[in-house]
Inverse folding.
């Protein structure tokens, strides 16, 4: 079955540590996205990538970094510079990144800073 | 800039009641409009979408019509079920520049038996 996988489902980080969240898709989609969700709020865009080896900052990119070396993979690193990283992180992909395309979401990773 | 405004929840209904969740947007040009649903602890699933004015999206008994004159995309269902209990997000995607989604804050629906 085609879809998006995110791992791990739950992640705990100590203050000052960097952590990397995995996102893999086998839908052969060109575009991939990372969103952050806080309780009672909508999703906010962290980074997005329209094609391999290219990515753009979203609305809340500070303290995060990404790479897009392969079409199917778009890992997100939460660095120690992110002041309030505890949140639910969602990865998504779409076929061509067109504004009419449906974005398909993974199951999410819940990050907690201890 | 672009923004999406949804009615605040939670919305609590009895089974078989009529549902309306209001959504209005602000955007330049002609965005595409989406409704996504999120069940507890899960990612988002597309419920329906409309990509041009006067289009009606529909799925699983839910409907929404893209009204450019009122900049709205209200979600409706004639008879809700307990299994419809979830958080519903309205979102838009612009037809110029960045194509990522802009989301509303979500509306929690609770359906009681």
């Amino acid at each position: 079955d085609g879809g998006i996988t995110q791992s791990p489902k739950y992640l705990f980080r100590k203050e000052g540590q960097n952590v990397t969240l995995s996102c893999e898709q086998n839908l052969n989609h060109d575009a991939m996205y990372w969103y952050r969700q806080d309780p009672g709020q909508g999703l906010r865009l962290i980074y997005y990538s329209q094609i391999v080896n290219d990515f753009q900052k979203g609305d809340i990119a500070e303290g995060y970094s990404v790479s897009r070396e392969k079409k199917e993979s778009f890992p997100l690193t939460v660095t120690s510079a992110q002041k309030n990283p505890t949140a639910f992180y969602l990865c998504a992909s779409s076929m061509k990144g067109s504004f009419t395309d449906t974005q398909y979401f993974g199951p999410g990773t819940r990050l907690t800073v201890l | 800039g672009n923004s999406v405004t949804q009615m605040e929840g939670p919305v609590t209904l009895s089974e078989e009641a009529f549902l309306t969740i209001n959504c209005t947007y602000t955007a330049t040009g002609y965005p595409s409009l989406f409704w996504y649903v999120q069940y507890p602890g899960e990612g988002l699933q597309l419920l329906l979408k409309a990509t041009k004015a006067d289009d009606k999206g529909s799925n699983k008994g839910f409907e929404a019509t893209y009204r450019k004159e009122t900049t709205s995309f209200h979600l409706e269902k004639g008879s809700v079920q307990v299994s419809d209990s979830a958080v519903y997000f309205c979102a838009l995607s612009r037809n110029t520049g960045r194509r990522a989604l802009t989301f509303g804050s979500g509306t929690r629906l609770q359906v009681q038996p």
In short: The two ends of chain B are 41 Å apart (CA to CA). Chain B is about 0% helix and 50% strand. Residues 1 and 107 of chain B are 22 Å apart (CA to CA).
